[in-house]
Amino acid sequence: MFKRKRSFVWGRNYKGLPIKADYRVHDLCFHLIKERFINFEKLKVLDIATGTGAFAQRLMDSFPSWSVDINDFEKQALVKAKKRFSLDLNADFSRKIIKTKYDLIVAIEILEHLENPWHFLRNIRNLLKPNGLLIVSTPNGDSFLDRVFYITEGHSLYFGESGYENSVGHITEVPDWLFRKIAHSTGFQKLQLFDSIDTKPLLGIRTRIKIWIIRILFGLSMKNKNSRSINVYLCN
């Protein structure tokens, strides 16, 4: 059932380039960038986990005067970026980019694939200019839908064995409270969470009933009640 529901938000493409995420994440990240940088003629950008390059291509099409670099570790990208790296994000990748600092780094749906989120954000901080901005997204495990999954499956929606097998290795769940701790400890001072990517497209009738029951039974004592599917952060 969830494979059918997930098809509502997965499986899209940009100009023939597969979007390997909930398409709403790409739309939101693009909106956040456009909102903040539309008047910038020059901007140094790194798409740190580019996948097929769909998001990087969207940036290059919309802002042709910007310098957009990509990291294509799995050699899947089908785009012509300014620079193309092949960095292992579990290693000290910032040491491989010595002479370049970025105004903006985009990390869409990569944190959950990595062994050490502290190590990753520390390296990202090293690659940003002093006032540089990081946009990062990762699955949210606190939603009502995820709580149903914890009860019935023993794990949140995008994790467990199915998340490992079907999502190309989801191994590290980073809830909101922990992400904030990691970000602050690695040098990011300001964080903003956006919650517009909700679980509604994923909910069937039976799941809605289960959520309704959980809210009745535990609603008053339940902490951090929300309906976010994906957490998207602005960090600087």
Q: Describe it for me?
A:
It is a single chain. The protein is an alpha/beta fold and 236 residues long. The chain has a single domain (9-140, 171-201, 229-235), classed as Vaccinia Virus protein VP39 (Rossmann fold, 3-Layer(aba) Sandwich), CATH 3.40.50. The protein is 34% helix and 18% strand. The chain has helices at 2-6, 23-37, 54-62, 117-127, 144-153, 160-166, 176-185, 205-218, and strands at residues 13-14, 17-18, 44-47, 67-71, 84-85, 102-107, 128-139, 191-194, 230-235. α4 links the parallel β6 and β7 (128-139). α4 packs across α7 (176-185) and α5 packs across α8. GO terms for molecular function: methyltransferase activity. It comes from Leptospira weilii serovar Topaz str. LT2116.
Mean pLDDT: 92
CATH fold-level name: Rossmann fold
Query: CATH homologous superfamily?
Result: Vaccinia Virus protein VP39
Q: How large is the radius of gyration?
A: 18 Å
CATH class: Alpha Beta
User: Structurally, how many domains make up the residues?
Assistant: 1
As a percent range, the share of strand residues is 15-25%
Succession of helices and strands: HEEHEHEEEHEHHHEHE
Largest sheet at a glance? 7 strands, mixed
User: What's the β-strand tally?
Assistant: 9
What percent of residues adopt helix (DSSP H or I)? 25-40%
Q: How many helices? A: 8
Terminus-to-terminus distance? 39 Å
In terms of per-residue confidence, which ranges show pLDDT below 50 for 5 or more consecutive residues? none
Structural class: alpha/beta
Q: What is the CATH architecture descriptor?
A: 3-Layer(aba) Sandwich
